[in-house]
Amino acid sequence: MIELLSPVGNFECLKAAVQNGADAVYFGADTFSARAFAENFNLEDLKKAITYAKIRGVKTHLTLNTLIKDSELPQAYELAQKAYEFGIDAIIVQDLGLAKQLIHAFPDLPIHASTQMTIHNLNGVLQLQELGFKRIVLSRELSANEIEYICKNSNVEIECFIHGALCISYSGQCLFSSMLGGRSGNRGECAGPCRLPYALLENDKKINSGYLLSTKDLCGLDYIPFLINAGVSCFKIEGRMKSPEYVAIVTRIYRKYIDLALSNEEYIIDENDKKELLQAFNRGMCSSRSSFSRC
Description:
Number of helices: 10
Number of domains: 2
Helix content: 25-40%
């Protein structure tokens, strides 16, 4: 089964994802989430969200995916324990120390390696496979052929982003926001300085200006059949800061084309669906097989 994983920033987004065909959803608690400025869920709401999804046959993934200070380990562990008791289906982790602790403490709970871990090659995947991770969320910078190579040569579930925002740097490695304003992307507080306008200078002369570092968004509709055949287990939609309307539209359209790719019908994309994706949120969209996720 190919899992469609949708982003959830609040309870309305959760409803939108579930009602439009998501197999699973991912969301953060009010601490240790890589989207600290999303609405997120306190413990009471976290329990309600897990119950809401579980009743409807949708899996839940908790994003406990920031780097953790030593002094914070007990608090992060307690959050994971509460989520486990509530019935969470998986926890997405960036911090290796925390991940190893959770793998040891909860052997029946799948621990997923966040894209923030910057796993971008087969050696990294195999190392985490050996450590006991059940799924690897690959770096968004990989090409379709690199994703295929990793899938064919590993025995762990592979998840990749299929739609949404891209980073001009490398997931989990960008210090731009931290250097400029003290808001670290590795602590869930990225201010997005790459989205601002800049001037390009050569010998003190401006030769270009505009949104030079702001990437277009990924749209992977064209490559769903290829990635399914490559062995990808889960397609992930970016957007925990987005609206319920965005979640509903993108989930519904990707549900349609995943189902089409798994059917015996010819895989043809309706251009109206691409237009609807652009209307939901528009930085422009791109993808290419040789460089699947860099635009």
